[in-house]
Every structure is written in structure tokens, then in C-alpha cells.
């Protein structure tokens, strides 16, 4: 999380960590940090966050 902000976990934060874990990237993140990811890895995480948020919104709108 960014410095100076309250440490309130957002939906995006939860999804980011969940997806990174699923992709097997947590060891790398723990060693070198989020900035150590390649553009491809970061893009994959961002893309999957977007897909999951859209799916959540669709499900919420159906209920």
C-alpha cells in the first residue's frame, strides 16, 4: 500500500494478492516486491482483476 494513506484493504488489494497467489508469483513478490514483476506479469494480474470485478458486478446486478 502507498505511504501516507490509511491501511484499509480495498477490493482491488484483495484481488491482487489472491490472483498473484494463484499465478504462483507470491515468492517473487516477497523477495523483490511488486516493482520486481515484469510488465507481462503485472498486466496479467491487472487483467484478471478487471475480469473478476466485471463478473462480480454482473452477479450483483442479477441478484
Describe the structure.
The structure is a single chain. The chain has 63 residues and is mainly α. It has a domain at 26-63. The chain has 3 helices and no strands. It has helices spanning 11-22, 26-32, 39-62. The termini are far apart.
- Percent strand: under 5%
How far is the first residue's CA from the last residue's CA?
A: 32 Å
The overall strand count is 0
Mean pLDDT: 91
Helix content: 55-70%
The geometry reads as: globular
Order of helices and strands: HHH
Provide key terms for this protein:
63 residues, mainly alpha, globular
Any chance you could write out the topology, listing elements then pairs?
Blueprint: H1 11-22, H2 26-32, H3 39-62
Helix pairs in contact: 1-3
Short characterization:
The protein is an all-alpha fold and 63 residues long.
Amino acid at each position: 500500500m502507498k505511504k501516507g494513506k490509511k491501511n484499509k484493504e480495498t477490493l482491488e488489494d484483495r484481488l491482487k494478492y489472491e490472483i498473484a497467489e494463484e499465478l504462483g508469483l507470491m515468492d517473487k513478490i516477497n523477495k523483490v516486491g511488486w516493482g520486481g514483476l515484469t510488465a507481462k506479469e503485472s498486466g496479467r494480474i491487472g487483467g484478471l482483476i478487471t475480469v473478476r470485478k466485471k463478473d462480480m458486478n454482473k452477479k450483483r446486478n442479477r441478484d
